[in-house]
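FORM 12-B: Structure-to-Sequence Request
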């Protein structure tokens, strides 16, 4: 996947929204509705063509002039910041943090429910493509999401599994993050294989989630007990 798209060069300039260039006048949408329409189109547009695609082509996709686009978003950086909030960060549900800490339920059930919902709500084709393009481009979307959301999630998963299994965790945060990436990375890569590589397993999604969660939990205690043993 290239960070830069060249497939949109040479596109025609869109007609002005007012029809001043001789076309049929377009109906004027309320400000909030027009902004929401632009953001919806921008999320799809950048996920297909990359973050370096031109705003002129985006304006044409929206059916508006580039001048009108800049009335809503004065710079491309402003637009991408809104796309991040809506398309990357906006799909994460804060209630997941609460549900993962509900110790009235077994941690295996909590993780199964979370990752099934995470796959359906976040790890979609559109989200993954946008995230990958952001990772390849000079943009803060991917590192900001990992630092602001995923790291907190990884720490919570490790803490909850450790609490149920009575495991004393070391103070090494990097080690704890890598341990949780074993599970989170496996689920994320499963989604990438399905949506981007088109090489997903024929197993039902629920079964894949259950398998990854159970394997993670099964090896958790033995790993950290071995890690705690003095070397030599």
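FORM 12-B RESPONSE
SEQUENCE OUT:
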């Amino acid at each position: 996947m290239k960070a830069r798209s060249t497939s949109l060069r040479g596109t025609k300039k869109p007609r002005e929204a007012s029809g001043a260039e001789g076309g049929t006048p377009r109906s004027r949408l309320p400000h909030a509705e027009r902004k929401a329409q632009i953001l919806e189109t921008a999320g799809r547009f950048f996920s297909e063509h990359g973050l370096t695609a031109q705003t002129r082509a985006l304006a044409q996709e929206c059916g508006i002039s580039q001048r009108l686009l800049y009335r809503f978003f004065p710079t491309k950086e402003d637009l991408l910041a809104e796309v991040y909030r809506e398309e990357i960060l906006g799909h994460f549900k804060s209630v997941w943090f609460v549900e993962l800490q509900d110790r009235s339920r077994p941690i295996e059930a909590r993780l199964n429910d979370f990752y099934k919902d995470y796959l359906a709500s976040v790890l979609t084709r559109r989200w993954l493509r946008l995230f990958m393009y952001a990772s390849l481009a000079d943009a803060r979307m991917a590192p900001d999401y990992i630092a602001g959301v995923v790291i907190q999630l990884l720490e919570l998963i490790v803490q909850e599994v450790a609490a149920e299994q009575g495991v004393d965790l070391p103070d090494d945060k990097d080690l704890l993050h890598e341990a949780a990436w074993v599970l989170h990375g496996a689920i994320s890569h499963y989604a990438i294989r399905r949506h981007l590589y088109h090489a997903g397993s024929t197993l039902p999604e629920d079964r894949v989630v259950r398998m990854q969660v159970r394997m993670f939990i099964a090896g958790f205690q033995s790993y950290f007990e071995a890690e705690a043993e003095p070397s030599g």
